[in-house]
Design brief:
By secondary structure, the chain is α+β, with helices and mostly antiparallel strands. Among the domains are: 137 residues, Herpes Virus-1 (2-Layer Sandwich), CATH 3.30.40; 79 residues, Herpes Virus-1 (2-Layer Sandwich); 134 residues, Cysteine proteinases (Cathepsin B, Chain A, Alpha-Beta Complex); 105 residues, no CATH class; 59 residues, Ubiquitin-associated (UBA) domain (Helicase, Ruva Protein, domain 3), CATH 1.10.8.10. It has 23 helices and 28 strands. Helix 10 packs antiparallel against helix 12 and helix 21 packs across helix 22. The longest helix is centred in the middle third of the chain and has 17 residues.
Amino acid sequence: MAAGDLGELLVPYMPTIRVPKSGDRVYKTECAFSYDSPDSEGGLYVCMNTFLGFGREHIERHYRKTGQCVYLHLKRHVVEKVPGASGGALPKRRNAKLFLDLEISSDLNSDDFEYEDEAKLVIFPDHYEISLPNIEELPALVTIACDALLSAKSPYRKQEPDSWEEELQASKHAKTLVHGWKCSKCDLRENLWLNLTDGSVLCGRWFFDGSGGNGHAMEHYKDTGYPLAVKLGTITPDGADVYSFDEEEPVLDPHIAKHLAHFGIDMLQMQVTENGLRDNDIKPRVSEWEVIQEAGVKLKPMYGPGYTGMKNLGNSCYLNAVMQAIFSIPEFQRAYVGNLPRIFDYSPLDPTQDFNTQMAKLGHGLLSGQYSKPPMKSELIEQVMKEEHKPQHNGISPRMFKAFISKGHPEFSSNRQQDAQEFFLHLINLVERNPVGSENPSDVFRFLVEERTQCCQSRKVRYTERVDYIMQLPVAMEAATNKDELIAYELKRREAEAARRPLPELVRAKIPFSACLQAFSEPSNVEDFWSSALQAKSAGVKTSRFASFPEYLVVQIKKFTFGLDWIPKKLDVSIDMPDFLDISHLRARGLQPGEEELPDIAPPIVIPDDPKALDIDESSVMQLAEMGFPLEACRKAVYYTGNLGAEVAFNWIIAHMEEPDFAEPLVIPAFGEVASSGAAALGAVGLDNQPPEEMVAIIISMGFQRNLAIQALKATNNNLERALEWIFSHPDPEEESDPALDTMDMENHANANILAETGSEGPRIKDGPGRYELFGFISHMGTSTMSGHYVCHLRKEGRWVIYNDLRVCASERPPKDLGYIYFYHRIPS
């Protein structure tokens, strides 16, 4: 077609073609509804107006909904090199101006294959194609828009590698690495790692066995971008422990012998550990990392629906593990994948910013099997012959999901490691706030907890109920069955550290599950208890029981705690978690004959002369901090809920996790300042006699409707604890309401009701028998929630499967005793 004809063809669409500006998000690497990309068979279509990307299956939907006709089609081809072409270099790009922000597959055998990129304009609905570049024939605006789109940075990539053809250079340390190894920055002689790019020897931090180090190996990676390192002392003729800083996990390096030979190290001669002792002189330490990941065992890869891995985006394994467990539950499968057509059809114009769309996309990616296909028989033969293989585009990269679900959250939006339990609650909060259909899938986790508080002096009691989603099980360290071994190990460990000898074989505390369950059911002291019977502070004890049993019971082992120096630490214990669990004996019984209730009198409100001197219950702060929440957020939660206890403060945290200043230090307003938080803390009445918004948010976060929360607070003079009691004692609250108030709520709080379908009778629960069967668990490796790695094990089709980011394999030895979060399903009666 002539240049003039192309110009005339595009004239009707020129008003809809935009040039990306600074701040525009250009999605040229991933479909908004699927995990299709330019690498996919159908390529990716990028709208020239919205800059959203769509796979071949979803482009028609966007065209019908928006009427946008002009798209840039991006396709990456992997082609076999012409015989005789130079090999050994990293993949080259034939079209240097295209796809500047796409990742190169680490699976590609660069000796035999290379990339060939293609771009063209496509005009709908006739699918008319215009190949690029076509500068002379296209209007200037179209050419500028195409160039800007092709050169735009992906919303997820922070930086682009400077070179794609860098080769490894021999390190100046190659001849001296065998003897006298030490960290080049701190002289540490243990937990050393050799960088396979430049040969630097640096200390690790928390890798594998959690041994000490100053993190210089990681710092070196951040400075240089050199990704692979091998742990010194693990190199043998059979292999070595290799770690990828870029992928944040141990990896297999099939060319490790060649890489080490590059520095003059012969694997066949490496028989000495880093401390100068031969391997057969000491027993190998079976680290938590190796046991949980089932290292040393040849695991069979699993493919197909439900066996799709997830890429680690850099400390995102906590998200991967939780989402694998979530989408193994039928209720979540039905809610999102079952409703996928409806969710996609009614998604907003920008589906990348819609929670339900992104949940349905992730669920479909994990369950469809589209991104988990076994290699063809011919490819398997090729792998065996060459010990190489063509790139397998298996697994999904949850970049879009993580970017949306963590938006505005100070912790999850970072690249730091996080607590999987905290993320689970964050996810449930978002599910509650974004109803999909008539049944909310998070209902399967919700249960009621009955708390019995007794005044030790008057012996009178108070029964209250609260909503929860996780059963937190304490670790009964005093019940360890191998105390003598633990004491002997600790003595040997200290001696070895002082003498710089290899550490002895690890001895892990063995805790009976029954002891942990007993510790959960025992009474606990209530700090700063105010007795309404005595109208004074007194000693009090509290006991928790299940007022209802959930359909799915999530059990968290409280392994994370704080030392005397307030440094987070983890209890390395082994607990014999049962496959079948019966907690029927923990069913709540309510007020018993002979028990006398505490009077319904609220403690007096004392406003100090200097509000900054207001005491904060540090014991409640510690309880929350041990759950993995930021310390400052815990202090704010306890303060803003008036020191009413860790449970009430916990609900405040759930309601405020998404706020930008969630983890910022507590700033207590001066007396008289207008601050909703301060008003909530002191129980003051809000503007126009409305309850404080902070208290309303706390009750909403427990699963109640907004109008019910306001009604309860008004009826109890904004006393939070009494308001909760009022809700449970009024199953049929008044239905009449102030029309003016309803109008204001609709205008100012359109999204405040996180449970759109919650009945006025209270939170939705799925009560039933308390007998359960284990179907999954999430394990953590590392010394604290701020470091380490998460792995998920799920029982599917009669066998256990390990989900370790992208690797999905049949499990041979599921480490059920080392888990952190366990998932149980109710056994039908």
